[in-house]
């Protein structure tokens, strides 16, 4: 299943320009965070990477760890599969995982921390399901990806992984994901299985509608329902539905910003997105989504009987979104990427607010007694 032929990554790097000046030395061993290979970058093998780093450090060898560096250090035949599941770009896994953590934390008993075992289980599931989703997406989009500069070097598009190999790899990922799912209660197993149709059909939506980001939101935030069910045995819809709704609105915000990176290429290849649908009116639309998201999170706090730290976190989240939407330059892909990845911090901030708010519940109850 694993190919031993030279990867297209290696072929491309041999054709790239090589700039010897101090300002770009750090870019020789890896790509800018979150970027696909471009013509002005050059990847150096891990051993050479260490030598360059020691030269830059005037003889001092430094050590850095990143998801991309770990993937680059993996055996050559394995690397295309790791890139296929986007292990070198973990932001997508975070955005899939965070709604799960919110739900698990909200479902914890008053005064208690969220279930660490459940968080670990859902973290594993997020890595596997995000990888499966990316594999499905790239299988659907092989011909499109070839025509877009940012995605042309993806493993299926450039021939490092065949569609048959990708299908077998997808089967392995889904089998492992099923192994994670069956660790949950029966209610959660049925609920989790129901999300698979969204995962499979999402890549088609960009061909049919200007709202594929909405379908992505429905898929990516399923954990807002599943996390509570896994802890409590069933959903409390008064909490889970507004949390799910808020997550969908959040996805519409960050993935619309993300889609602005590719809007010119999308027009050429005939792919649709909310970025193209909204155009110059993107920021007003994102502001509407932000208002809806925050209204949903307030409803979550009321029904979950959250306390002051939770609402303080909501205030910080609101400020984060206001800054993100008001300052993003939709015509600069680099800035769109920067704003997109900042949503990990937003999600972690909300998680901390939920945990702190839940820990304060016990204190308030003792005071009331």
Strand-residue fraction? Answer: under 5%
Mean pLDDT: 83
- Give a quick account of the main beta sheet: strands, pairing sense, barrel closure: none
**Portion of residues within helices:** 55-70%
Q: How many DSSP helices?
A: 20
Class computed from helices, strands and strand pairing: mainly alpha
Can you tell me the residue ranges where pLDDT is under 50 for at least 5 consecutive residues? 1-5, 9-63
In words, what does this structure look like?
69% of the residues lie in helices and 0% in strands. With 369 residues, the protein is an all-alpha fold. The longest helix is centred in the C-terminal third of the chain and has 26 residues, at 343-368. Mean pLDDT is 83; it is low at 1-5 and 9-63.
Topology of this structure?
Elements: H1 8-15, H2 22-25, H3 46-56, H4 67-73, H5 79-84, H6 91-107, H7 116-140, H8 142-146, H9 163-181, H10 186-193, H11 196-208, H12 212-220, H13 223-232, H14 237-259, H15 263-269, H16 274-278, H17 282-303, H18 308-327, H19 333-341, H20 343-368
Helix pairs in contact: 6-7, 6-13, 6-14, 6-20, 7-9, 7-11, 10-13, 11-12, 12-14, 13-14, 14-17, 14-19, 17-18, 18-20
Task: Quickly list its features.
369 residues; mainly alpha; 20 helices; disordered N terminus
Provide a compact summary of the structure.
By secondary structure, the chain is mainly α. The chain is built from 20 helices and no strands.
